[in-house]
Amino acid sequence: MPEQSEQTQSRFTRRVLALVAIGFLALIAAGIATAWLQTRNQDLSEWVEHTLGVQARLSDFASANERVETARRGVLLGGGPDFRKRMEIASGEAGAALGDIVRLTADNPLQMRRANELRGLLVRQRELQRRSIATVNARRSEAQGAFEDDPAVIVTRRVRDLSRTMIAEERKLLAVRQVEQANSLAVFYAILALTGALVVLVAGITLTVMLRYTRDLAASRVELRRLNQGLEAMVDARTAELQRANQEIQRFAYIVSHDLRSPLVNVMGFTAELDAARKTVAGHLDAIEAESPELVEEPVRLAVREDLPEAIGFIRTSTQKMDRLINAILRLSREGRRTLAVEQVDLNGLVQSIIDSLQHRATDAGAEIRAEALPAIASDRLAIEQILSNLIENALKYLQPGRPGIIKVRGHVEHDRVFVEVIDNGRGIDPRDHERIFDLFRRSGMQDQPGEGIGLAHVRALAYRLGGLIEVRSELDRGATFRLSLPRVLKPGGE
Fold it and tell me: Cα separation of 41 and 188, whole Å?
């Protein structure tokens, strides 16, 4: 069920992310297209404005040139100084307009050639107009009758035709550019419409997926609630069974260790008597050997002086080790049967008292124990003290020779749990032994320090009773970090 829920959530997440990505890509594409079309529309607008400007100046030039010709004819027909003045003004306006035309048509080679031709024609026209006016008084009647054949009139007509051609060309360009501008706007609106439709489609699909996921999630919650109701009953029953089994195991361990102690005491007592008897025999053997050495055989001498002491030593060592193990089992059994007392615990004061008790050993080992600020916790004080004492003592015990030892104790709170870490720079633990060291009577690395392999097993058992966990992170020659996790407040009966 959890795997199916995770798969459903993963599929939902992938779909939503894909739809959101599509929506964002559509918006990005629309933004790029909009920016490009906006730039293009701006360019087309500038070209349309440019074409209108050229067209206007061509009209201005044609009008001014017509006024020049009209004023010249007025002069030829006997007009006064007003016609000459009008001719000069119109000639200046035509020249200025032609200059603008030449500048504005620099981007169009065809129009540029025509503008240059207009410039030449205008120069020719003005020269012919000045000649005709210079001779008007001498040959007025002849000049008045030769308008149709007047070279100035011919040039003027050519200027008029060329101006009209250029205006027609600009109108054609204006029409083309207006069509391009309209097409660009149509494409722009089409892209906006397509983008809007795509965004609406993505939003609709996303909403549908989310609604379907919400319905599935609600159904899953109902099913999970139903399963939890049954699961809680199963957990309660299983917990009760485990507690009974744990009590039976503790009772069995107590009985076994207690029953083992009686024969062990007998073995230890008889070993002492056997050693005393050996000493008596050895003294008697020494007396006989002093009076009559030939009566003492070599096998007897070796048995009394070497074999028996070695055998008795082995027996004594083994019984002492067994006695320590039995005491440890009894201690574990008593701790397991002890009722936990929940109280507010000042971890700072507790850890400092542990450090003070180990300060002499730390000084002798050339080590330093540091404690940072630790959070408060409501739990069993004795159990926490045993856990932290064991961890700090182990860190002090397994320092790396030749390296100044540094042991740090620090902690913090995450949600409703307290985390305490004991960190050292000692010899470290092989990653393959990270779980092994928490097993009863199991140890890791060099066995150059006294111990029975019970301490960390006791630590884990106590951590479990307090509703917590203990884990280790370590590598060989890189120190170790033991991380203890406990509930911030131990609930009564939680053990």
Answer: 10
